[in-house]
Design brief:
By secondary structure, the protein is an alpha/beta fold. It contains 19 helices and 27 strands. The strands form 5 sheets. Strands 3-2-4-1-10-9-11-15 form an 8-stranded antiparallel sheet, covered by helices on one side. Strand 18, helix 10 and strand 19 form a beta-alpha-beta unit. Helix 10 runs antiparallel to helix 17.
């Protein structure tokens, strides 16, 4: 969940590292730091808090700005509190090695005891520091081996250079690369690491296992990062480092190696072109990224649907399943976490209603630790905004072992979910910066709706005419969302009425129940106001005990087959003094009798109600967070991409 960036080249490293860290701050912002390699020494500067504090500290760094090789890190704390001592980069005892790490080293305690017994002194409480000391140990061992080889080579009248630049020019791994490889062989867990050392000036070595890492080469140098967004101002052609691979960067070189065996084997890098619009990652006049991204949702809907209806058929050729294989499917699992899980709950209704296929939605962290019924006739749909969610990836891999076909829905081109699926839909949300997902959520809902339509049509449950009509109405939701965004007056009034609450209850039925889950999560994430979501029919089975005078109940009460039932539940709440906020369909005059605040949304088919009803809940959560003085883009304790368990 942490952010990694590295640069080696002809320009000063500090501006490159700070810019990259600022772009990666969504991955963690407990602390940040840089290590600047200057030939015979490495300067390390760390600060707690956000990257801006690190920038201030480096503003008076003087000679540190001369360094043209360095690595940086922005941290989401796992092992050890967010203190300056626990901030990355971590260094070896002699200061000749500096390292940044994203992931979790599961056997760090055992390794630390071993290293301390060998005389290593630790400065932090993190699991990551053990890697720096392991690299130091490996460098010492390899230096002895190389010295013996050099002595033999001298005796035989030949000489092989061991410095990193010369080795890279000859396509061979440097001593630092070999040391990192040797150190990684001792690690159990997940990692993306970047290392610099005075043993190989001007060289950065990166390696990964279950955590993302990408690299790129430009005219002014080579770049490394945990997300391509840190590189797009410098190069759009990036090399995605796969599990078990090591990458070595020089000022004008980039070498990739298979590190899965006992030695490093050269590989041919295959760059992937990134076509994100970098300008879309800036705020564009909005006060925060979350508000900007909420307002980008109509575009996301349109872009995700573009080209998906060919004639009278939903076109998902990425699925890579034949009509016969689709007809043999007898079960669908949607596996996801957090907001993506809620998108799956919405899709379950559509898949079972339209395609008449049993569909289960499971939290990926639970799916992977039980024994679900998965066969070759099971379709597993993995949903992840980043495409790097650790639990979702692990669940996908388990399903594949059992023979299931796996389909991915993600926002990130070239991500692990995309690469490890039999097919993938990209949600076309562009980069999402705010930690609380909004536009990616709607992109996922729309993508899953397409999957449901395609399954239904292929299995003969929807006619071509029905598909054409449904697709047209789905496309119209972009305009409906624009109408919601055009006037947020009622949302702001409801937020003002609820800002001082200590807890809130979100309720709904059918589609509304799934939307309630997402609404409650958004409120918790960014305002720190406790919230729960319940199917409205469950009110009398416990939750109604929470309600007293002024207690906020947020109800999704759009027109649906269960509308009258929801009204009855709201009457029960009002009778006990609840403050009711209702998301209701425009033109509904009855709802005002049962609610203190009504937030109207345009009329849509119930199947698409989640799309329009979720948007005012996003605005509602954001408005309360702003009123409570919270950072809506970077809420405490959270990070955008959960790449560890």
């Amino acid at each position: 969940m942490c952010g990694i960036v590295g640069y080696t080249g002809t320009e000063p490293a500090v501006p490159v590292l700070l810019d990259g860290l600022a772009r990666l701050e969504y991955r963690g912002y407990d602390s940040s730091g840089v290590a600047l390699e200057r030939g015979s020494r490495i300067d390390v500067v760390c600060e707690t808090g956000k990257v801006a504090r690190l920038a201030e500290a480096l503003g008076v760094g003087g000679g540190a700005h001369e360094a043209a090789c360095g690595i940086g890190h922005t941290r989401w704390a796992t092992h050890g509190r967010p203190t300056q001592a626990n901030a990355h980069p971590h260094t070896s005892c002699d200061g000749a090695v500096a390292l940044v790490h994203n992931g979790i080293i599961e056997n760090f305690a055992e390794l630390r005891r071993e290293l301390e017994a060998a005389g290593h002194a630790f400065r932090s409480d993190t699991d990551s520091e053990v890697i720096a000391h392991l690299v130091e140990e490996s460098l010492v061992s390899l230096a002895c081996v190389d010295a013996a080889d050099d002595a033999l080579a001298d005796a035989e009248g030949r000489r092989t250079p061991h410095d990193g630049t010369a080795a890279l020019a000859q396509g061979r791994p440097s001593i630092l690369a070999r040391a990192v490889h040797a150190a990684a062989s001792r690690l159990i867990g997940s990692y993306a690491i970047a290392v610099v050392s005075t043993a190989d000036p001007g060289v950065i070595v990166g390696m990964r296992k279950d955590s993302p890492l990408v690299a790129g080469l430009a005219a002014d140098g080579a770049y490394l990062a945990s997300d391509a967004i840190a590189l797009i101002d410098h190069t759009r052609d990036v090399v995605i480092v796969e599990d078990g691979q090591l990458i070595e960067l020089g000022a004008t070189t980039l070498a990739l190696f298979d590190a899965s065996g006992s030695c490093l084997a050269p590989l041919e890098p295959s760059p992937v072109h990134i076509d994100w619009d970098a300008e879309l990652t800036e705020k564009g006049g909005y006060s925060d990224f979350m508000l900007k991204e909420i307002h980008e949702q109509p575009r996301v809907i349109r872009d995700t649907l573009a080209g998906r209806l060919v004639g009278d058929s939903v076109h998902l050729d990425e699925l890579a399943l034949t009509r016969e294989e689709l007809n043999l499917l007898d079960r669908v699992y949607i596996i996801a976490c957090g907001t993506s899980y809620h998108a799956g709950l919405i899709a379950k209704n559509l898949i079972e209603t339209w395609a008449q296929l049993p569909c289960e939605v499971e939290v990926a962290s639970e799916f992977r630790y039980r024994n679900p019924i998965v066969t070759p006739t099971t379709l597993v749909v993995a949903v992840s905004q980043s495409g790097e969610t650790a639990d979702t990836l692990a669940a996908m891999r388990d399903a594949r072992i059992k023979g299931a076909r796996v389909f991915g829905i993600t926002n990130v081109v070239g991500s692990s979910v995309a690469r490890e699926s039999d097919g993938v839909i990209y949600t076309k949300a562009n980069k999402e910066i705010a930690v609380a997902s909004t536009k990616s959520f709607l992109g996922q809902v729309v993508s899953l709706t397409l999957v449901a339509m395609m399954l239904a049509q292929t299995r003969g449950k929807l006619t071509a005419g029905q598909v054409r009509l449904l697709f047209s109405e789905l496309a119209d939701t972009a305009e409906k969302v624009e109408a919601v965004l055009a006037d947020a007056t009622s949302v702001e009034a409801a937020a003002e009425a609820c800002k001082d609450a200590r807890s809130a209850l979100f309720v709904g039925r059918g589609m509304g129940s799934a939307v309630a889950c997402e609404g409650a999560l958004k409120l918790k994430e960014i305002s720190y106001l406790h919230a729960e979501a319940y199917p409205a029919g469950e009110m009398k089975h416990g939750p109604i005990a929470l309600i007293d005078e002024g207690f906020p109940v947020i109800a999704i009460a759009t027109m649906s087959p269960t509308y009258d039932k929801v009204l009855s539940n709201l009457q029960e709440c009002k009778a006990r003094g609840a403050k009711v906020i209702a998301i209701a369909t425009e033109g509904d005059d009855e709802i005002a009798r049962h609610a203190d605040h009504v937030i109207a949304v345009p009329s849509v088919r119930d199947a698409f109600s989640a799309i329009v009803a979720s948007v005012p809940l996003q605005l509602f959560a954001r408005a309360i967070a702003v009123l409570r003085g919270c950072d809506v883009d970077q809420p405490r304790n959270l990070a955008k991409s959960v790449t560890v368990e």
